């Protein structure tokens, strides 16, 4: 399947304020140009299909014209035209997304993706089992169905704990939704491929689980949508209820050379703006409503990740917002009576050469090549022609000296801005270090550098007598599991991480575990073994990998598998599992790093900061590996937390607002595991396995999607006898702080506000407080307003408004979704 590509964003258009003035571009100084007090429109193409050509032909014509004049930029077309085009693709569920297939050492490639990247591995294989796919009207849903056996939370979604249902998300019956779609397919109710794909996409998205994802190609492959005006939610004084503004107005106001006062937004398309934004936010992947609200807006930490973050916010088309058709235009109404109407756009993500109709689009991108279709048995006969290479570089320095927009110059920075270190400046702040961690790594080549940045920042802080540490995990959607453990162990080397997890127990997992465990008993558990052996011996499917809940080894597979019944249904789950951090094969699951305190990093034994001198700051996006890290820091080390932003009220909010599951498995990895018993056949032959659940797996679901993963592991808190997954636990942060206009443009203002609250007795909390933390804060002091730093440079913000994404870093992987991965 052609990969999604991120090109340049269309040019921004100024927004509506009291005098209708605002910034348009930056060329050495800030400039303002007058524009209408009532409406404005962007300079993007506005043509649509005409009487002589269909919508897809119009898209093709506009793309050809666009690329001839701007060959390196992303083609954009009016949103309505793209929507009409994709809806003209006729429905045929058995169509399976044309693949750009290559031959892989499937197991190894899939495992490398499991460790980090989450890109489906499309494979060329034998067509026997799926040759008649076009005769099966429900082939795609049937292909997805066996992968759902691995999802740990489906029964809990339908009957969650009461506190979760009242404060986070209402009950959601996934199976009822799934069955409804299935019946519509059977009854011929769908007329377009997009209508079916949208319902299927939403059935997963409504679970609000960033590890429970299916992106149908008809929804996510061809177009993505956006708006040219990002928004921001800020409190003018840090205590009053936040209001929503056009980000360009707040940015211009921060320069102090404008003649108008930014006016808050009051309506969107004629609706109350708060109600509209709350409703739209529910299209996001996060579970917590305050986190969903935050992610609607321009946030510096998300922007700092470049194309791998959610950009300028889901309202503007970042993250999951890019898949939601926004209508042909959006009208913003402001409190001062002015209005702005902007034309919504669509990015064209695939070539449109030769496309003149929905049927052409169907044949080109939604029809499988028969040789690309295969099942678990046929995959077992594949031969290797390539493998995934990993980098051994451990450099902690950046290839770019340009800080992320709104960030100060770092002490040290990972080249893709995945983490960075800072020392605060100014009276009262000179003993405070900041470790910015907006990711826990998404690619193997960044693993060692990421660890090195953390180590260097901590060591330099100690060497320069910094006694306090702010850890900023804003925008952190997860990454490599053991990086979360490693950072915890660098900070608290004497604490053994708990981190208990479990899988859903089902037939396929049991059969794979039996076969892999038998194989693993025949070969040495050693780094000297060949790659294939290391790949399989180090997996969770080998009972010798991991420890039990008491940090003791399992003695046989059945002891690890269980099953044990828990939950509202109840459902079957494995025994609790903990990582064996001293395992010689740890590096096979960590992207190549050794967890601090073990093996060749056993010399890390000194705790650099006292727990009461550490605070973690969140924007609600924390998920997956970030959840793991947060759970260890909060529950085992007692570190305090501050959550930023949230909906327009003064209620407590959660720190962790994303998925709290601890591991996701891509469908490609599951399929590779399902192929293992067919390949080795130690315990049973292929004919037997074909009669089991393993015989149901094929790659059609992979070929018809751009991303497909499930939540494979629940996190379980120590001492929880009923084993409620962390996903369904509500836990408010110790303190909630509103964003201010300064914090929307200058990250240092955020860190100093946090430092005031956590360490200096100057509380900015609007809910919760630190007065009982035992550091001398016996009463709430008056918070003072913090301005932007004197060396603040806003030019990079204008680049983001122009391009839709920050591109001032080197070597970043293009993606743009802020995936929840672990």
TrEMBL record:
InterPro entries: ClpP/crotonase-like_dom_sf (IPR029045), PDZ_CPAF-rel (IPR056186), S41A_metabolite_peptidase (IPR052766). Signal peptide: none annotated. It comes from the Eukaryota. Residues 36-48, 387-401 have a biased composition (Low complexity). Gene3D superfamilies: 2-enoyl-CoA Hydratase, Chain A, domain 1. Residues 1-54, 387-410 are annotated as: Disordered. Residues 225-353 form the CPAF-like PDZ domain. It holds the Pfam family PDZ_CPAF_rel. Residues 26-35 have a biased composition (Polar residues). This is CPAF-like PDZ domain-containing protein. It comes from Hortaea werneckii (Black yeast).
């Amino acid at each position: 399947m052609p990969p999604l590509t991120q090109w340049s964003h269309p040019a921004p258009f100024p927004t509506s304020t009291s005098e209708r003035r605002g910034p348009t571009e930056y060329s050495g100084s800030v400039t303002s140009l007058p524009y209408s007090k009532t409406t404005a429109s962007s300079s993007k193409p506005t043509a649509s299909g005409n009487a002589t050509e269909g919508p897809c032909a119009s898209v093709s014509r506009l793309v050809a014209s666009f690329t001839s004049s701007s060959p390196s930029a992303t083609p954009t077309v009016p949103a309505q035209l793209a929507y009409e085009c994709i809806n003209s693709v006729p429905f045929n569920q058995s169509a399976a997304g044309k693949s750009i297939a290559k031959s892989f050492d499937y197991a190894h490639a899939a495992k490398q993706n499991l460790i980090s990247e989450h890109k489906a591995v499309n494979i060329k294989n034998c067509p026997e089992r799926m040759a008649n796919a076009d005769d099966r009207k429900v082939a795609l849903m049937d292909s997805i169905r066996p992968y759902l056996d691995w999802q740990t939370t489906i029964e809990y979604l339908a009957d969650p704990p009461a506190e979760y249902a009242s404060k986070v998300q209402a009950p959601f019956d996934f199976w009822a939704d799934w069955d409804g779609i299935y019946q519509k397919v059977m009854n011929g109710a769908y007329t377009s491929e997009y209508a079916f794909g949208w319902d299927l996409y939403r059935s997963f998205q409504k679970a609000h689980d960033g590890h429970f994802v299916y992106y149908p190609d008809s929804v996510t492959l061809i177009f993505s949508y956006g708006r040219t005006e990002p928004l921001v939610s800020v409190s003018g004084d840090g205590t009053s209820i936040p209001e929503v503004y056009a980000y360009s107005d707040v940015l211009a106001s921060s320069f102090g050379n404008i003649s108008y006062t930014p006016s808050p937004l009051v309506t969107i398309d004629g609706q109350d703006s708060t109600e509209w934004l709350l409703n739209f936010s529910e299209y996001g992947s996060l579970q917590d409503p305050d986190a969903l609200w935050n992610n609607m807006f321009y946030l510096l930490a998300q922007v700092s990740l470049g194309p791998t973050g959610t950009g300028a916010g889901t309202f503007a088309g970042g993250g999951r917002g890019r898949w939601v058709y926004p209508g042909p235009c959006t009208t913003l109404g402001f409190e001062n009576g002015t209005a702005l109407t902007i034309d919504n756009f669509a990015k064209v993500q695939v070539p449109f050469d030769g496309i003149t109709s929905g049927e052409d689009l169907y044949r080109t991108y939604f029809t499988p090549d028969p040789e690309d279709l295969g099942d678990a048995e046929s995959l077992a006969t594949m031969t290797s022609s390539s493998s995934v290479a990993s980098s051994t570089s451990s450099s902690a320095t950046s290839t770019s000296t340009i800080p992320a927009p709104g960030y100060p110059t770092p002490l040290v920075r990972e080249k893709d801005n995945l983490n960075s270190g800072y020392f605060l400046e100014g009276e009262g702040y000179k003993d405070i270090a900041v470790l910015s961690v907006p990711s826990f790594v998404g690619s193997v080549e960044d693993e060692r550098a990421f660890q090195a940045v953390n180590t260097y920042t901590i060591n330099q802080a100690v060497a320069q007598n910094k006694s306090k540490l702010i850890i900023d995990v804003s925008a952190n959607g997860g990454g490599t599991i053991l990086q979360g453990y490693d950072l915890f162990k660098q900070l608290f080397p004497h604490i053994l991480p708990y981190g208990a997890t479990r899988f859903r127990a089902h037939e396929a997992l049991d059969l794979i575990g039996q076969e892999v465990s038998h194989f693993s008993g025949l070969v040495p558990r050693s780094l000297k073994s060949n790659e294939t052996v290391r790949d399989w011996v180090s997996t969770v499917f080998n009972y010798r990998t991991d420890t039990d809940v008491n940090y003791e080894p399992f003695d046989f597979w059945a002891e690890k598998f269980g099953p044990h019944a828990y939950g509202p249904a109840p459902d079957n789950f494995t025994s609790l599992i903990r990582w064996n951090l001293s395992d010689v094969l740890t590096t096979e699951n960590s992207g190549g790093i050794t967890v601090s305190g073990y093996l060749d990093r056993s010399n890390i034994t000194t705790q650099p900061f006292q727990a009461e001198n550490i605070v973690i700051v969140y924007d609600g996006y924390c998920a997956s590996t970030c959840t793991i890290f947060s759970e260890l820091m909060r529950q085992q080390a007692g570190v305090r937390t501050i959550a930023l932003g949230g909906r327009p009220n003064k209620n407590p909010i959660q720190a962790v607002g994303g998925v709290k599951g601890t591991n996701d498995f891509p469908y490609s990895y599951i399929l590779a595991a399902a192929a293992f018993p067919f390949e080795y056949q130690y315990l049973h032959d292929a004919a037997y396995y074909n009669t089991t659940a393993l015989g149901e797996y094929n790659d059609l679901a992979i070929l018809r999607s751009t991303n497909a993963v499930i939540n494979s592991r629940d996190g379980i808190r120590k001492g929880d006898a009923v084993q409620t997954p962390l996903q369904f636990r509500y836990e408010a942060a110790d303190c909630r702080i509103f964003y201010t206009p300064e914090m929307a443009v200058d990250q240092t203002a955020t860190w100093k506000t946090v430092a005031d609250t956590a360490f200096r007795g100057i509380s900015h909390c609007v809910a919760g407080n630190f007065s009982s933390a035992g550091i001398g804060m016996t009463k709430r002091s008056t918070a003072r307003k913090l301005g932007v730093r004197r060396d603040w440079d806003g030019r990079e913000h204008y680049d983001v408004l122009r391009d839709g994404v920050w591109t001032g870093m080197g070597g970043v992987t293009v993606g743009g979704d802020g995936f929840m991965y672990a």
